[in-house]
Amino acid sequence: MRTEFDIVIAGGGLNGPALGLALAGAGLDVAVVDAAPERDRAQRGFDGRAYALALASVRLLGGIGVWDRVADQAQPIRKVVARQGRGGETGPFGLFFDAAEIEEGLLGQMLEDRFLYRALMDAMQERLTHVPATKVTGQQAMPGGIEITLSDGRTLRARLLVGADGRASGVARRAGISRSGWDYGQTALVCALEQEFPHHGTAHQVFLPGGPLAVLPLPSDRSSIVWSLGNSQAKAIASLDDDYFLAVLSPHLREITGAIALTGARFSYPLSLSLSNRYIAERVALIGDAAHGVHPIAGQGLNLGLRDVGALAECVADAARRGEDIGFDTVLDRYQGWRSFDSTTLALGMDGVNTLFSNDNPLLRAARGLGMGAVNAVPALRRHFMRSAAGLNIDPVPRLLAGKAL
Ligand SMILES: Cc1cc2nc3c(=O)[nH]c(=O)nc-3n(C[C@H](O)[C@H](O)[C@H](O)COP(=O)(O)OP(=O)(O)OC[C@H]3O[C@@H](n4cnc5c(N)ncnc54)[C@H](O)[C@@H]3O)c2cc1C
Fold first, then answer.
1. Which atom of ligand 1 approaches the CA of 16 most closely?
2. Separation of CA 122 from chain center
């Protein structure tokens, strides 16, 4: 294997490969090093993970040549309904978003992790150097570049090292970048269901007293369920057998789904907030969960990561075209300035929504209902929120997220 690259990316989850493909498309020489064995994740059945991809994220996946590979497996999101729920009934006020009200005519797409991951792996094989089952274990910035040590003893050299190695990012730790955050004391119970009523592409968010319950449409009238609960309640519910679990879940869903049946295994994900205090260091940039691990309440984790991908790819590709050193401070400063405010405000906004809605205080309950009713009554506000959900309100929007060439 060659040892000299323009960019080495540590982490081949979702954001690392997406960035690698974007940069390779701009003519840069990229290696993606991933600790996980190749294709392990793509060969599994449905593991409960499915993403609500904002329209802007879908455009980016189109721009890097991945969307065409998965379009047949995706479910368009045409409507979003958010309401409070309690004792199996939903409140009178809520938010009702219909994509027909915005010119794009679509809010996003639902896609299972295994299909997206497989498409990224296939595309990487064709267009860049992929080093699976290998860890990045060391890094040393030096004049004009950075030296990267791998777990098999090899050393790579690049002008820029990107940390896409998730919430426990070793790239960030070794670069001296500290993290802030807290445990939510919540766990997300995740599964997929077959449902009696057709979903017509509608995504539901039901704010239950114990935490939010997301019901997200998948192809063939299945739904992906993400139910966030306090740890002790989640543990108790997770330990129930499948029949009992459905008996506990179905009263909350009856109005939305009718009768339900599980279509695969159930999964639990502990929830925490983990924000890097900086996104850059000497010859280093962080993207995705390595930069910001957020609450899944609005399904924004991957969407935020793909915004990083669009912004960093643009900063680096433009610098390369101008003949600048792509790992130099000025290029990285541009990236950090573009992304850190948006990610931090969105992460803390989701944290606030989770705190505000995950309780049964009667006064807050009434205020929440009235608040949602008020927003819903004003078409311009409704459209503003819809465009945010579709990822169309970033300023300036990275070219790939606007559906333009890098
Ligand atoms: C329950 C739940 C539901 C969610 N739903 C949504 C949703 O609907 N929409 C959405 O946008 N987001 C959603 N998310 C968030 C989304 O899953 C994450 O934001 C996204 O997967 C992060 O991708 P990543 O590539 O940044 O990191 P990761 O997927 O964590 O990938 C990190 C990679 O780095 C590799 N790695 C680690 N250490 C090293 C090393 N030393 N050397 C080399 N490689 C290394 C790992 O093997 C891994 O492949 C959800 C999350 C949860 C928990």
1. 25
2. 20
